[in-house]
Amino acid sequence: MLEPVMFTGGVYKHDLVMELVEDLGGYVLQKNVTQSEVILLLLVPKEDMEALKAIISDLRGELVRAPLAGTEVAVVTPTLAIHHLPHTACDIAEYLRRNGAKSNMIGLARGVGRETAQINEYESMLIDEHDAVVFIFGNFVECIRKKEFLYRNINIPVVVTGGPEIPKEELPYAFEYVPSVGRITHRAKKATELGTLDKIIESVGRALDRTRTDISKDPLTTSPPRVMDAVREQVPEVEYSFSPLPIALNLNGVRIKLPYDKHKDAVRAVKFDEGVTLGEVATIRPSKMKDYILVRILPMSETGFVF
After folding, report:
1. Would you tell me how many other CB atoms lie within 10 Å of the CB of residue 84?
2. Taking the model in full, what pTM does it have?
3. What's the whole-number average pLDDT of the chain?
4. How many Cβ atoms are within 10 Å of 175's Cβ, its own excluded?
5. 72-215 architecture in CATH?
6. Which residue has the higher pLDDT, 110 or 130?
7. In terms of CATH architecture, what is 2-65?
8. Residues 6+ apart with CB under 8 A from 82
9. Where are the domains of the chain?
10. pLDDT (0 to 100) of residue 83
11. Distance (Å) of CA 72 to CA 103, 105, 124, 206, 209
């Protein structure tokens, strides 16, 4: 099982950390350099974590668990109008990015009004392509309760935010509820406001860990980072994608940001060292996000092997 972690330290000799992770069979998901500091998002085999901690200790760096690394999280507001898109939505989306997730903001087409709000099948399927979702509601208890139908049929963990305190038992279809958010007309600056954002991150992290536990009961045939590396090597068009993140990782696959009809055959034909192709161990279908390619890796129970 690969453990998601974040390394923070000096630029000096940080390449030793990257080399060790790759030697251990792990993956470097992201690298950010800011002047003299570097931040690495890593996936490392759990049994080899002590070796990584030892070299990081020598480099005087910091290693923390980052459950959001290598995931996509949707941030959903009832609409993208100013009425429903306060600063809170931007703060949550940015905070998710800072903690390693790829966040996508989604506004519903018919989310206005407690009685008239709706979510259609397309929007539900788009949200389900993520690993978790944060629904941002306002300051009224009755409105938050009534709008439960917006996420009732979502198949991924749902974290709900709002202003008032509401017992979790009153929102049975939500994974967790985080209060003290609501509609705020300014960016989060106070310690209490930043603490609430931390609670949202912790809640999303617990949701993702539950998904990881479910996947471990029936492991994927191969790991999403390995698929990402193979696609990069064998589908060179990925490097020319205008997207800042041409391949987005999910817990159960990847999203390749290339036109589906033009590149689906090349993606299916991606071959691994074991002699199998990606099309044999994964379903490849068009994504609901633009015209991208969605790859979902099959579990061991369907293929009969793991590599």
Report:
1. 19
2. 0.90
3. 90
4. 19
5. 3-Layer(aba) Sandwich (3.40)
6. 130
7. 2-Layer Sandwich (3.30)
8. none
9. 2-65, 72-215, 224-303
10. 67
11. 6, 11, 15, 14, 14
